[in-house]
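Fresh eyes needed here. Have a critical look at this protein's tokenised backbone.
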Amino acid sequence: MLAYERSVSAHTLRAYRREIHSFAAYLDEHDSHDLRSVQHQQIRAYLGTLYDRGLSKASVARALAAIRAWFRWLAKTGQAEQNPAALVSTPKLPKHLPRVPNIEQMNRAADHIGVEAAAWPERDRAIFELLYGCGIRNAELVGINLSDIHWANDAILVRGKGRKERYVPLGDMAAQAVRAYLPLREAKLAAAAGRTTDALLLGVDLRGSGRLTTRSVQRIVKRLATTQGLSADVHPHTLRHAFGTHMLEEGADLRAIQELMGHARLSTTQRYTQLTSNQITAVYDRTHPRAK
């Protein structure tokens, strides 16, 4: 159902499968073999064992989400009378404001990607520019095909969560990086016995389908970040968050950012973009009659 009706990502499928198997094993250990008899107290007790293992509130909340979805499906298909997980409260998660590099740091990093930092500098510069310049997700990035780039309209067709499609603008710097990379991409395919693929981003060794993987993009971004003096915890989603944050800082409308980033709810965009303390102070100094 998750795969074919809701079209969730492969990552979500793996996570839900893992969580449900773990909970099912817990029920089996406690001789609770009839799903119709499972009560919310048992689910709370299971979550308690997760805390005892040292799992964070976020991990426990993810486990509960998977159990809720499972019992919702069981009730819908007549294999359970109700959803006992609906009576279990989600752990209250702390609100962390993600730290992102400032505009100057991002510009400096993008402008100085060289052979010492990249196995394939032209490709890795295109990765950096597309993640930061288009605000797309890692999975959306590696899923881009050559046919998805609409040069005449300066736009890229992106396939997001739930197979939802959207067009994102292809900025000048990202377009330059992609154009510089394309001839080398073609040369690599030609050297590999004339292999063909529509995938935009290729792995160095063309392993498997030749398409770059999300894990490889994570390693590439981390390496680029550390060699350019950025924080070691920078990852592809950091660049996406920097996209939204910097656009907001420069005066972009929140709804426009929502559309560009492919968020279903505006509240999600508000979590991904936050005003800096300097901005808040500047707005106060500029607008409040008693601040002058």
